[in-house]
Every structure is written in C-alpha cells, then in structure tokens.
Design a protein that fits this description.
287 residues, alpha/beta, Rossmann fold, seven-stranded parallel sheet, two-stranded parallel ribbon, 13 helices
Length: 287
C-alpha cells in the first residue's frame, strides 16, 4: 500500500492522480489535514489518514498497513526539518519498506545563497541515517512557477527584470514530475535510488523572454539587475526585508548555476521526452 502525504496539495495531488491510473484504490492512502477537502479521494475508494506532520500519533496511525510512503516536502519553513523527521520516524516505527521524498535538484548544497534549501538536504541526510530503503526525487524548478517569477501577465508590458544573470534552469512541468514519481512508486522497490528529475534542456530568462515574445506577439525583454537593487525594489513594493532577501537569494542561486543541471531521469520515467519550453509556457500562460 502506498501513502502519499500532502495528497490534496498541488504536487501531492499530481502524484495521486497518476497513481490512481496505475493502482487499485485499495492500494492507495492519502495523508491529509482536512478530510473534507479530500472527500473526492475517499469517494473513489482511497483510504484517508487525517493528521499533520506535527502530530506523531496521527503519523503512527497513518502508517498502519503502509509499505511505501511518499513524503511531500512541508511548507512551514521554520518547522520543516523537524516535521520531516517526525514522518521518517513514524515510518521507521511502522516498519515501512520504502520512504520517498520530494527534494530539489541543486548543484552544490554547500554554496547555496538561499539557506531555506538546506532543509531538503538535511531531510535527505536523516532519511539515509534512518536505515530505511529510500527513493529520493530531486526535482527541478517547476515551469508552472514562471508566472510568479516574472510577474504574471504584467510581463507582457514591463518585461522580465531579475538578478538571474545568464543562469539557466532545467524547467519541468509539475504534472510531469508527478507522473514520473507515480511511475517510480508503482514499481517494486529496487534498493536505494536517487532520481534527478529535470527538463530535457536548460533555459536562461532571456530564452524565456524570447519564448513569451513568440507566443504573445508582444515584445518581452529580459533585463538582468544586481541582487541589491532587486532586493530594494521588492522592499519598495512592501515586502519585508526577510522575504525580499529570500526571493533574491533564490534567484541569485539561479545566476550562480545551481539550477543548471540536465539529466535523462525524467524522460526515462515518463517514457517520453518532457515538455519543452515553448509548449510548457503555452500551457502555463493559457495560450
């Protein structure tokens, strides 16, 4: 039986939808905070396990009868690592046969500017130390997140202004990452495995600007700026100093080549080439 945590979230939901194609409902379980939001899964015959990452007792109940757990990374930045440890500990107590985790594909954990990403590697380390058989999904940046980076439809008027330099990103659609993970989880465990799930090519924000120009027929430019100037712009828009620096750090890591990694793991698990930049942006921006 496979348990998916965060099963009503965007990534967890994408995985669950694909698992429903590959497994009978009685082979699936969903760990959710709110049963009402998961009633559709319940009506489809999927077992609901209600609780939170902060509640070890609810995690123990959730692990009953489970062979494989997919731990979707938590969103509470302050408590994330401890929450993940709670899930891993519960899986170990229950004798789960495999734990999988949604990590991030970044080139060098020791030179990251965005310190929040360290939580992923701390979680990986804890999983490995637990002795549980594991599958790590190191996912690239979602192509679906590009509108957030460039300001949504406002990009067609003001262009892209970011401190990303000439950094490149191997973007992938969230739906395809979910599909690939479901394919891996539906297979028998084959020992400890780390998948580096990236798009088939990496792209700069200049490439993204050119693709958006072609799609919209409007001129979209890319203007790289210095990190300090970008942080000041965010603060001028009302963002807190902490949040402004976090966003700047994330994009500075792109400029430093942290996201410029291309592998064939996603293609292999999908059984086809991942969606490329133009078609992906067409889907994301609704063209």
């Amino acid at each position: 039986m496979i348990l998916v945590t965060g099963a009503t979230g965007q990534l967890g939901g994408a995985v669950m939808r694909q698992l429903q194609i590959r497994a009978f409902p009685d082979q699936l379980a969903a760990f959710v905070r709110d049963a009402e939001k998961a009633m559709q899964l319940h009506e489809q015959g999927i077992s609901l396990r209600v609780g939170t990452y902060d509640e070890p007792a609810s995690l123990d109940r959730a692990m009953e009868g489970i062979e494989t757990v997919l731990l979707i990374a938590g969103t509470d930045e302050e408590k994330r690592v401890q929450q993940h440890r709670n899930v891993i500990d519960a899986a170990k107590r229950a004798g789960v046969r495999r734990i999988a985790y949604t990590s991030r594909e970044l080139n060098d954990r020791y030179t990251l500017v965005n310190q929040l990403m360290h939580a992923h590697f701390q979680t990986e380390d804890y999983i490995k130390a637990s002795g549980l058989p594991y599958t790590l999904f190191r996912n690239s940046l979602y192509m679906d997140a590009i509108p957030q980076f460039v300001g949504g439809d406002a990009v067609f008027g003001r262009g892209i202004v970011l401190p990303a330099g000439q950094g490149r990103v191997a973007l992938a659609l969230r739906s395809e990452l979910g599909e690939a993970m479901a394919n891996a989880l539906a297979r028998p465990s084959a020992g400890n495995v780390t998948y580096q799930l990236t798009g088939g090519a990496s792209y700069s924000f200049a490439d993204i600007a050119n693709a958006l120009t072609d799609l919209s027929g409007k001129s979209v430019t890319y203007t790289p700026v210095e990190p300090a100037a970008f942080t000041a712009q965010l603060q001028a828009r009302g963002l807190s100093d902490v949040m402004a620096r976090r966003i700047t750090g994330f994009i500075t890591d792109i400029a430093n080549g942290q996201e410029d990694s291309v592998t064939t793991d996603l293609e292999t698990l999908l059984g086809r080439k991942p969606t490329g930049l133009t078609d992906g942006l067409k889907s994301v921006f609704g063209y």
